[in-house]
Amino acid sequence: MLTMTDIKKVFRTDVVETHALRDFNLQVDEGEFVAVTGPSGSGKTTFLNIAGLLETFDGGIYQLDGEDVSHFNDKQRSRMRNEKIGFIFQSFNLIPDLDLFDNVDVPLRYRGFNSAERKRRIEQSLETVGLANRMKHLPAQLSGGQQQRVAIARALAGEPRFLLADEPTGNLDSQMATSVMELLKSINDTGTTIIMVTHDPQLAAEAKRNIQVRDGRVSEVDNVMPLKAATA
Amino acid sequence: MFQYYLKLSLKSLRRNPILSALMVTAIALGIGACMTILTVNYVMSSDPIPHKSDKLFYVQLDSWDPYQPAREPNDPPDQITWTDATNLMQEKAAFRQAAMASSNGVIEPADQDSKPYLASMRLTYSDFFSMFDVPFLYGSAWDAAADEQEQLVAVISKATNDRNFGGENSVGQTLRVAGENFRIVGVVDDWQPVPRFYDVTTGAFDDTEEVYLPLALKMPLELPSSGNVNCWKEPDGDGFIAFLQSECVNYQMWVELPSDADKQRYMDFLDNYANQQKALGRFPRPLNNKLSDVMQWMEYNNVVNDDAEVMLWLSFMFLAVCLLNTIGLLLAKFSTKASEIGLRRAVGASRGDLFRQHLVETAMIGLAGGLAGLGLAWLGLRGIEAIFGEFVSKMVHMDTNMIIVALALALVSSILAGLYPTWRACNIAPAGQLKSQ
Ligand SMILES: Nc1ncnc2c1ncn2[C@@H]1O[C@H](COP(=O)(O)OP(=O)(O)O)[C@@H](O)[C@H]1O
Ligand SMILES: [Mg+2]
Predict the structure, then answer these.
(1) Does residue A147 line the site of ligand 1, with CB under 6 A?
(2) Mean confidence (pLDDT) of chain B
(3) Residue B225 in contact with residue B215, Cβ under 8 Å?
(4) Contacts A–B by Cβ distance under 8 A
(5) What is the ipTM of this complex?
(6) Contacts of residue B348, Cβ cutoff 8 Å, sequence gap at least 6
């Protein structure tokens, strides 16, 4: 499903080389809900960006959905992102002057659906996140939790196989965070594979599987439903 | 997808209205300046009589000073003498021919209340009107007999007819010019070739004359010379006739030669004529006669003068400066969109998708700039008209051309300006933009 073997990523600037990932190995199977924890700067975001084809890597083999993606060109990578991957970011990344409908529409436009199909999917995914009655609102008119729901609706609209979330609750208070987490779990229940980076051990504990990244490596893999004490 | 890009571009332009307005203004200024100057150049260099400009030839005879050419390096004078003008006219060696000169005379209106006034005149031959396709409102040209018999006939301009006859058909009426009563045979309709090619020795963009009389009347009526008179030696004696028969040049000569063979024959005729004159002691220089068609003659006389060409280059440079500004503004604008671009990349837009989106956006700015530039060009042309006179108003005829050229220029230049910023925008790394708001 998603297999990383000895993935390396080095950031080079004029003065320093940062080995963000060193021999990163991970396999994620269909339908899993993986929570990724680890100290700040350990390489979690880098891993997620590589997993989501937002960033290239410097060594190793990455197979996504059975395909070796290291030689994909820009167009192939964009298409893969568009069709198979949904992203959720800590800072929502909604486009401020587009209303909710048009925000959810963004990935669908690059998919080439006709307008009826886009409308159906937009309405359905906004329904899923409970914002179907706010379609003509601008992002700024919503609370943070609602904005993150819109971002989730945008990620869901393309019906991706993978949902990649980088600290999706990082900007939310705990109550909103809980409800976003519930939403993610229900999405996972429909079969979508989710990989979520979080620094919140309590949220991580609710995922089916936990991994920890330390110093650019997967340092520890807990199996299904770890004890809270193990990650806290 | 194009529609989607249009919609996004509109939104994007509205997002920073000031930045958008600045870009549109920059392009509009550049396009406005360019189009103004370009149009003036275009009009100056346009073919005033396209359907036969290659069959009409201006005649130059080298009757000049043996010790120096009329014009460097070795060109004959721009005009011919009275003697040669009348000789050539007598031979009738071309399909059509008209010698001519500018003059002026006082018109005394029949209406006692109106004051006499000085009118510009063209003295010429009957072929003038058919050769240059002069349109007639009433009547027609005088005939060849009138030239031969030195009849007192006149063709007048529409303005003259309006002024003296209230715009009525005045053919057959009498007009008092230069102290004589002339019978009016024709009234010319609105006619203003641009440039006024038939006589560029005075001013290529002067108005057409108010009255046309047979050149043959110049001698008996002692009609004055205006325009440029150039002499390489003193007239033999004093008085009007001595001056007329001198080696001073003040006359233009046009011939219509329908075929190359006709042209060759006429050239031979001119050389023959020059040799005859040499036998009579004139034409001391080596044989050097010239026939130039209309556009060659315009070119030779620098009708589009060097100033206008310099202005054209300056205006293109000004456009370039405006475009450099636009590049800066676009860079600023697209940099504010970095996070949106990153997001679009993340959800599946390829570089090509974003390139096209931003190209549409710059094209839209270009189009708006082009339209505004057209407005400015219009104002600029009215300004030039105010300064340089009526000839620019002829440009009404080329409005569609002008619009197409202006918009194409605006589009091409804005897209050129947009290439680098757009390329930068497309190469924004998606990952880097998504972490922080
Ligand atoms: N674009 C970049 N350029 C240089 N260094 C980077 C870049 N992105 C991340 N890094 C470095 O890579 C390491 C891993 O970063 P990151 O994956 O963001 O960590 P985490 O998400 O776990 O906090 C850090 O040392 C960080 O400074
Ligand atoms: Mg991170």
Answers:
(1) no
(2) 91
(3) no
(4) 73
(5) 0.92
(6) A78, A79, A81, A82, A83, A107, A110, A111, A158
- B180-188 vs B153-157, strand pairing mode: parallel
Q: Sort out which chain A residues have CB atoms less than 8 A from B346's CB and list them.
A: 52, 54, 81, 87, 93
Question: What is the CA(B435)–ligand 1 centre distance, in A?
Answer: 11
Provide the 10 A C-beta neighbour count for residue B7. Answer: 13
Closest atom of ligand 1 to B429 CA is 1
Closest-CA residue, ligand 1 atom 5, reads A11
Taking the C-alpha atoms of residue B215 and residue B80, their distance in angstroms, rounded to an integer, is: 14
Spatial contact of B414 and B407, defined as CB atoms under 8 Å apart: no
Ion ligand 2 — residues with CB < 5 Å: A 45
Tokens of B410: 């605006």
Q: Give how far the C-alpha of residue B266 lies from the chain's centroid of Cα atoms, to the nearest Å.
A: 28
Closest C-alpha to B9, from B372, B430, B418: B418
Which residue type, as a one-letter code, is found at position B230? N
Residue bearing the bigger pLDDT, B168 or B35? B168
Q: Phi/psi class of residue B103: alpha, beta or left (left: φ > 0; alpha: ψ in -120 to 50)? A: beta
A225: pLDDT strictly greater than 70: no
Going B153 to B156 to B160 to B162, the CA torsion angle's sign is positive
Alpha carbon of A204 to those of A34, A156, A160, B285: distances in Å? 8, 21, 22, 107
How far A157 CA lies from chain B's nearest CA (Å)? 11
Kindly list the residues from chain B whose CB atom is less than 8 angstroms away from the CB atom of residue A45.
Answer: 435
DSSP B222: T
Query: What spacing in Å lies between the alpha carbon of B344 and ligand 1's midpoint?
Result: 22
Is B351 part of the contact surface with chain A (CB cutoff 8 Å)? yes
Average pLDDT over residues B110-126: 93
Token pair belonging to B204: 């290529």
Whose structure tokens read 């409102």? B137
Rounded Cα distance between B381 and A142, Å, is 53
Tokens of B9: 């571009």
The structural domains of chain A, with segments of one domain joined by +, span 2-230
Residues present in chain B in total = 437
Reference B402, options B428, B416, B417, B381; nearest CA is B381
In this complex, do A78 and B429 lie within 8 Å of one another by their Cβ atoms?
A: no
CATH no., domain A2-230 = 3.40.50.300
Cα separation values, B334 from A54, B19, B136, B156, B352, Å: 20, 11, 61, 64, 16
Which residues on A lie below 8 Å from B340 (Cβ)? 95
- How big is chain A, counted in residues? 232
Decide if pLDDT at B187 tops 60: yes
CB burial readout B405-417, b (16+ within 10 A) else e: bbbebbbebbbeb
CA of A227, closest CA in chain B: separation in Å?
30
A49–B4 CB contact, under 8 Å: no
